[in-house]
Input
Amino acid sequence: MHKLFSRKLPAIFAIISILLLVFFYYASVIYSTMNAEMQLSETETIVFSRGSSIRTLANQLIEKDLLSEKRYFLIWGKLKRQETSLQAGEYTISPGTTLAELLEDMVDGDVVQHDIALIEGFTFRQVLATIHSHPVITIETKDLNDDEIMRLLGHAGEHPEGRFYPDTYYISRGVTDLELLRRAYLSMDEILAEEWQQREKDLPYKTPYEALIMASIVEKESAVAEERPLIAGLFVNRLRKKMRLQTDPTVIYGIENYDGNIRFKDLRKDTPYNTYTRHGLPPTPIALPGRGAIHATLHPDKTDYLYFVAYSDGSGRHVFSTNLKDHEKAVDKYQRNKR
Output
C-alpha cells in the first residue's frame, strides 16, 4: 500500500500543481480585470435601484461598455462578500475608476448628492411644489391633503404650516418626499426647542408654537435681517398693549386665490388670519421662519415702537414710530408721497 501510494505521489503533485497554476491564473485574471481602469472619456452616472442585485449592476455596466462579461465581476463580488452589501443610489464613475473601486463605493454608499433649497418665507404649498418638481425625489404625497401628509409623517392633527425648517438639504436620488419632510420637520423641532430654552424672560408667548407663529410673521415682514429684532419687539409691544397686530402678511395668508394685490376690503373682511379685525396671534404660522426670525422673536429689541412703514425705495427697510401721529407722517412721506 505504501509503495502504491509512493508511485502515485508524483501524479498527485502534478495534479495539485496544475490546479494551483489554474487557480493563480484565474485569480490573476480576475484581479487584473477588476483593478484595470474602465475605459471612460468622461464621467458616467449609474443608478442602482432598491431591490437590484449585483447581476443587475453587471448588466448595466455591460450596456455602458464598461464591462465585457460578468463572470469575473460576479466571482469578485462573492469572494469579497460585496454582492449583498451594495447600497441603492446614484453613483458617478469618473475616468480612471476601476470596477473594484466602484463596488467599494457602492458598499460604502458613496452616492451622488443633490441639493434642494426650502426658502425662508415659503408657505407649505410652496414647499410641496418645490419638492414635487425636483427630478431625483420619489413622490409619495401626490394628491394627498395636508391632514393625510401630517398623519404619514407621524404628526396627525398638526397644521403643517411653518413646521419645516428652511435650509439647503443634500439628498440622494430616490429619496422620498416624506423622508425629506421628516428631516425638515425634525430640524425645525430641534431648532425651535433650542431657541425656546434660551429665550428672554417675560415674553407674551405661552408655548414654543406661539413663538413659531410670531416668528413666521417676523420672517414675512423683515426683508432686512438686522430689522428682525426691531419688528419682533414692536409686535411684542402691541401684544402687551392689547393692540391688534395689523400686519398685511397674515391677511394675505387668509385670502383664497390671492392675486398679488391687497385691497382695503381685504383688510375689513374678517378671517381667522385677519389681524386687523382680530386680536392676538393668528391660529397657525403663515410661512417657514428661519433661525434668524425665530431668534429675533425670542430676543426682541426693547423699544417703544408700535408702528412701522416701509420705505418706497425698494430697500425693504422701514421707518419705526412710537405713536400714530408720527406714523401717519411717515406713511404720507414714504408711501403716499405727500410733502
In short: The first strand starts at residue 44 and ends at 48.
